[in-house]
Fold these 2 entries.
Entry 1:
Amino acid sequence: MTELPDYEEAVLEAVDAIPEGCVMTYGDVAEMVGAKGPRRVGRVMSEYGAATAWWRVVRAGGHPPVGLEGEALAHWRAEGTPLVGGVFGSGRVDMARARWDGTAAGERVSGV
DNA sequence: AGCTTGACCGACC
DNA sequence: TGGTCGGCCAAGC
């Protein structure tokens, strides 16, 4: 079912490869899939993101896409994603811990 | 062919 | 601390 261009399919796969409790920035995904601009990833996500774990993809500051902050926050809390200020944070992801390298899937820094 | 917009990023003030 | 500016690449009009 490769009806989508290479990079779009790559983006969806990269997002799907992100383990629960981890997130990646648009720029990271862009570089991971070989995309040149992070904006391209955002566009792909806006179109096909509904079919993928879009909430695992956030901006460089740990902010979710506008209009979906509540949705993303709910997903993060459900998956145990580290949030700034605890689970009752201000709707921001703790990039320091939640940022996924994309190297070892399923393996993440345990504890602190 | 050119301008505007966009789920962005980084730097600057 | 938070807002603003410029840059990047692609799609839409």
Entry 2:
Amino acid sequence: MQDGTISSLGHPQVTEPGSRPVFPSDCPIRQLLDRIGDKWSVLTLLVLGDTAMRFGELRRCIGGVSQKVLTQTLRSLERDGLLTRLVEPTVPVSVTYSLTPLGLDLLSALRLMMEWAETRMTLVKAAQNEYDQRGAR
Amino acid sequence: MQDGTISSLGHPQVTEPGSRPVFPSDCPIRQLLDRIGDKWSVLTLLVLGDTAMRFGELRRCIGGVSQKVLTQTLRSLERDGLLTRLVEPTVPVSVTYSLTPLGLDLLSALRLMMEWAETRMTLVKAAQNEYDQRGAR
DNA sequence: CAGCATCCATGACGATACTG
DNA sequence: CAGTATCGTCATGGATGCTG
């Protein structure tokens, strides 16, 4: 059981001799995935990591998200302590969203994943094409 | 447009003066999230990152996944070139899954996220409790 | 053992209309 | 502008039974 293994991350796993790491449904990783593993959360964090933004602007930055779902996503992230919602009582009202330190912290952990996507998704696509061709013949 | 911003990652964004970064539905990050943003993909990569494993064993390591869905998940990841499926024609048949170099590479990018979950999910839970109490009163 | 086929429930998501 | 409310759809995933 050396560094680099999952075990070194300190999960509440079964580690009896001969057994395998187990990820119960209430382990931290699954909790995180359950929360930000939806369609828009990561994207929202990503956009707000660049700059604080108002609702309408935010929506225009994320292609295809409906107004209802964006509201839901923002509420969840606010509840998680990842972003703050600032209401300015102008007329009409203006609402600005920005990441908390915790949100920025998560985002920095996600950056590596995004860079991977930038540089490696072409390889994934190539693999998919090859796989599909194998199935066709 | 400085380092550390989203823009520095090189997205196919609109960058006209005064405009904001835009994440169209076909940008690499959204493609990646569409692929591994499901309920079990990341978890599967995680388990296989530790050690190659057979189907039944794999299933026991991921609490709550059904046989059908695990099969689907594995097929997708194989199609993406992230893992390999090795069939040994014994009786009964034995199938071993292991990560490809590309899969290991992605996993290393995801490790930071997992460590974040390990150390920060308690903070998220605390934020949720506080949020819920505010709504209750 | 490692699937495939089928049926079914759920909820995430989208479209639309309306409001302070 | 930034929502809330309502309805409908569809994909995801769970349960079960069968098979090489």
